[in-house]
Amino acid sequence: MKKVAIIGGGFAGSKIAKSLENDFDVTLIDTKDYFEFTPSILSAITDPACLEDIQIMHTHYLKKAKVIIGRAEKISGNEVFVGKRKIKFDYLAISSGSKYSFPFKEHDALITSRANRLRNHYEDLHNSKNVLIIGGGLSGVELAAEIATKCHDKKITIVHAMDRLIERQPEKASEYAKRFLEKKGVKIIFNELIKGNRKVRSKENFFTDRGKKIESDIAFLCVGITPNSDFIRKSFPKLVDKKGYASTDESLNLKGFRNIFVGGDVTDIKEEKTAQNSIEHAKVIASNIINLERGKPLNKYVHKERAMILSLGRHRGILTYKNFVIAGIIPSMIKRHIQNKEMGSLKG
User: Which of 60, 89, 234, 242 is the most exposed place for a label (fewest CB within 10 A)?
Assistant: First the structure.
């Protein structure tokens, strides 16, 4: 039976592993022992109990595949090096994701320590009065809304370098997010940067590049997404660009390698790094591995504009599709349906 190694157990890696485990000798390599529905992770900061609904151990949804907890360090020939271990493969799928500031994604954490750290943030937040959120993109807006709708005693400030929130979305979505947050008492500072050491958590005063002083008992850094591609760069230096994205061809192969595929956040495909796109990558990669075995042509990945949902607490949200925007309760209901469907597909 041919061997398939998969690096990363997020949306792409988990789907590929589950799709192929009955027909291949599959090994999933991940720095954590569970899959997590990361679009809903911010809810855990104000309600740690929700972790039970958005996490599942890899060994619970994979019936045949082997799971190795560790960090891929290098690829050489037909082997992946994980610490002192060598995992041989005939096919390799790289879906190592990206680094976000804690608590949005976390590496080198088992499920218990992840939960404990989020509970610590819950306690820190509970004991804080002044909350600073650095960055007004998708994560910053969702975090501000989560705290503002559940912790009414907090003074929340967003510092955003751009002239509007979620600037890659339509202006109507930006304006709705701004009105919603300001109605909840959130102060938004546009066109300014936080100076000095950007700590995720810091009980100290922060200053903007225009000299504005901001009091903070707890601060969250919501900027700076970096692909987890160090091991790819170490193995194939010419195939990783300056931002850390791996060169990916139209069939989602790592360029120049017919048996190595790339999916999820680490690809250099010009599109939003979303769960939906990662799932579509997984479908193409899994089918192409099967096609290679059967001597069939490879399928091409075709980027499509897909709807995006931003949560504003539990009961409100914004859905955008191209220039179409829906705001209110319906997007939040759709997001909960997607979460339940995705987690149900793994648990079932």
Answer: 242
Instruction: Show Cβ contacts of residue 341 under 8 Å, excluding neighbours closer than 6 positions.
Output: none
Angle at alpha carbon of residue 67, lines to 63 and 71, rounded to 5°:
160
**Dihedral pair phi/psi, residue 42, rounded to 5°:** -65, -25
Residue 254: beta bridge partners? 248
Q: What is the pLDDT of residue 225?
A: 82
Structural domain boundaries in the chain: 3-31+70-100+225-304, 111-224+308-338
Determine contact, residues 149/48, Cβ cutoff 8 Å: no
pLDDT at 44: 86
Identify residue 287 by its one-letter amino acid code.
Answer: S
The sheet carrying 66-69 orders its strands as: 66-69, 25-30, 3-7, 91-94, 260-262
Determine the Cα–Cα distance for residues 320 and 53; give it in Å rounded to an integer: 25
Domains 3-31+70-100+225-304 and 111-224+308-338 are alike in CATH topology: yes
Cα separation, 46 vs 43, in Å, equals 6
Distance CA 190, CA 282 (A): 38
What's the rounded Cα separation, in Å, for the pair 261 and 272? 19
pLDDT, tens digit (0-9, with 9 covering 90-100), for 196-248: 654 444 456 888 999 899 989 988 888 878 899 999 999 999 999 999 999 99
Whole-Å CA distances, 171 to 71, 106, 190, 260: 40, 31, 15, 40
How confident is the model at residue 191, as a pLDDT?
97
- Which residues in the chain come in under a pLDDT of 50? 198-202
Q: Choose which CATH entry (3.50.50.60, 2.60.40.2550, 3.40.50.720, 3.40.50.300) describes domain 3-31+70-100+225-304.
A: 3.50.50.60
Spatial distance between the Cα atoms of 93 and 80, rounded to a whole number of angstroms: 11
Per CATH, the number for 111-224+308-338 is 3.50.50.60
Q: What are the backbone dihedrals phi and psi of residue 294, each rounded to the nearest 5 degrees, phi first?
A: -95, 0
CB 80 within 8 A of CB 5: yes
Rounded to whole angstroms, how far apart are CA atoms 55 and 346? 10
Per the structure block, which two tokens stand in for 250?
A: 């139209």
